[in-house]
């Protein structure tokens, strides 16, 4: 679904059975396992969306029922501002708050040094605000809009950078948030950051795999003659040596293991796949790939594979 840059999404869900007033008097240890399980299920749903933007857009409406909160807001960090983007309130709260999303959509909050959200972003740690109406560290237009008595705010960290904020509470002027609530919001924000990193990594791997496929397709158009040996066969074929103890040589001075890695790269395997095939660590494979690039004078996997295919073709022409 297409949206404008500053659009807020509002969802409606039936009241959660754990959201009645009696729940807040219960022992947190009794409900924490269920909440954590629901949070993990929510993260799995967001991870399956396969897009960073889609996961962020769905985070508030997915986390609110999972974490058992009446209201959740996801804001993006844009330079020195935090900008409300995606708002979710329960059915009951939604009926009380008509027009609230438009008020939030108009907010562009500077991250000034004294504000709670600024400390959350800078220190990359969550905070529980217990007296929002009287706390001098609040952004007053935000507090006036949502009319909360207390809330939790946690950063969503991708790499080393806070890219978003999660705000959660139990409704306008209703039950204060607890330390158990704080743990749940912090846990969700941490997992969301990891999920976003994973989604972004998968996207980069897919793009890299497509580059490799394109390079192979171009090479196949050149090596389309019948009987052309595969790249892996050529790279790993022993080269006759003048002395029985002299090791077989590989193009560009590659070692035996580097030649194996290059051949597996040409098959389209990722670093993880190569590591699994060769029973080595992924960091070892990365080191081999870096050496291969250096020896070939290549800067990308597709360029490296193209070099290898050209070398294969040259060897065939010399032998013909």
What does this entry look like structurally?
- By secondary structure, the protein is of the alpha+beta class.
- It folds into 2 domains: 21-201, Beta-Lactamase (2-Layer Sandwich); 223-319, Arc Repressor Mutant, subunit A.
- Helices cover 52% and strands 12% of the residues.
- The protein has a 6-stranded antiparallel sheet, with helices on both faces.
- Helix 2 packs antiparallel against helix 7 (179-222).
- The chain is elongated, with a radius of gyration of 28 Å.
- The protein starts with 27 loop residues before the first helix and ends with a helix.
Feature tags:
single chain; 320 residues; alpha+beta; Beta-Lactamase; Arc Repressor Mutant, subunit A; 2 domains; six-stranded antiparallel β-sheet; 6 strands; 52% helix; disordered N terminus
Structural Rg: 28 Å
Task: Detail the poorly predicted runs.
Answer: 1-25, 242-246
Task: Report the portion of residues in β strands.
Answer: 5-15%
Largest beta sheet: what is the strand line-up? 3-2-1-6-5-4
Provide mean pLDDT, rounded.
Answer: 80
CATH superfamily of the largest domain: GAF domain
Order of helices and strands: HHEEHHEHEHEEHHHHHH
CATH architecture of the largest domain: 2-Layer Sandwich
Which overall shape is indicated by the principal axes computed on the Cα atoms?
elongated
Distance linking N and C termini:
58 Å
Number of strands: 6
Q: What profile does the largest beta sheet have?
A: 6 strands, antiparallel
Count of helix runs: 12
Can you describe this structure in just a few lines?
With 320 residues, this protein is α+β, with helices and mostly antiparallel strands. It is built from twelve helices and six strands.
């Amino acid at each position: 679904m297409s949206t404008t840059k500053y659009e807020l999404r509002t969802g409606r869900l039936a009241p959660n059975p754990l959201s009645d007033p009696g729940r807040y008097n219960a022992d947190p240890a009794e409900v924490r396992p269920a909440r954590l399980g629901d949070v993990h299920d929510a993260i799995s749903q967001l991870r399956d969306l396969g897009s960073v933007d889609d996961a962020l857009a769905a985070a508030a409406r997915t986390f609110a029922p999972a974490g058992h909160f009446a209201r959740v807001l996801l804001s993006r960090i844009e330079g020195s501002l935090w900008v409300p983007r995606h708002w979710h309130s329960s059915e009951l709260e939604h009926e009380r708050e008509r027009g609230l999303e438009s008020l939030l959509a108009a907010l562009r909050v500077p991250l000034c040094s004294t504000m709670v959200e600024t400390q959350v972003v800078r220190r990359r740690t969550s905070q529980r605000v217990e007296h929002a109406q009287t706390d001098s560290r609040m952004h007053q237009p935000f507090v006036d809009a949502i009319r909360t008595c207390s809330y939790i705010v946690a950063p969503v960290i991708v790499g080393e950078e806070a890219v978003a904020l999660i705000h959660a509470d139990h409704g306008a002027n209703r039950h204060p948030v607890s330390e158990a609530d704080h743990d749940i919001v912090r846990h969700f924000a941490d997992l969301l950051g990891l999920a976003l990193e994973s989604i972004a990594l998968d996207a980069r791997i897919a793009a890299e795999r497509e580059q490799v496929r394109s390079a192979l397709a171009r090479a196949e158009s050149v090596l389309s003659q019948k009987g052309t040996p595969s790249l892996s066969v050529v790279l790993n074929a022993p080269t006759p040596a003048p002395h029985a103890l002299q090791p077989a040589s590989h193009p560009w001075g590659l070692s035996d293991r580097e030649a194996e890695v290059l051949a597996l790269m040409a098959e389209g395997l990722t670093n993880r796949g190569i590591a699994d095939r060769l029973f080595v660590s992924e960091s070892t494979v990365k080191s081999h790939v870096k050496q291969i690039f250096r020896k070939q004078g290549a800067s990308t996997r597709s360029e490296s594979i193209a070099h290898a295919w050209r070398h294969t073709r040259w060897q065939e022409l010399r032998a013909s």
